[in-house]
Amino acid sequence: MESKRQQKVASLLQQELAAVFQRDLPHLFPGLPPGISLVRVSPDLGVARVYLSLLTLGKTDNTATEALVQDSAKIIRQALARRVGKQLRIVPDLVFFLDDSASYAAHMDQVFGDLHIPPAPSEGVPDASDEAGNIPKRPKLFADEDE
């Protein structure tokens, strides 16, 4: 469980990293800059795990973008330090991971859409009456119960 301090630092880093990707370093990323879906900070606030969601409009190579982000980690950390230098004593080391939950959700939607589930047999729901149409009496649960 994360402490309140970890949650606050993670939220600050998420906001500021989004601003770094969009405003300070847009030239690093051709097309759309990666989105930040989640930031987790270690208890000593020294390492931040950043989960990137790559919003691609077509089929592109996500590993190339991930490699570009990994290679630019030092530049990204320096740009982040300029933004949060007054709020944090030490800017955490950034470790980037791809967040593939959106593609996984799309894949699962496709799998569920491709399923063929036959309809239930329409035999009708059996009712509680017998062939003569007499409804059976409710059983007594207690000895002193009236009918």
UniProtKB/TrEMBL annotation:
One of its GO terms (molecular function) is ribosomal small subunit binding. Its main location: cytoplasm. Residues 118-147 are annotated as: Disordered. Belongs to the RbfA family. Monomer. Binds 30S ribosomal subunits, but not 50S ribosomal subunits or 70S ribosomes. This is Ribosome-binding factor A. GO terms for cellular component: cytosol. It is found in: Cytoplasm.
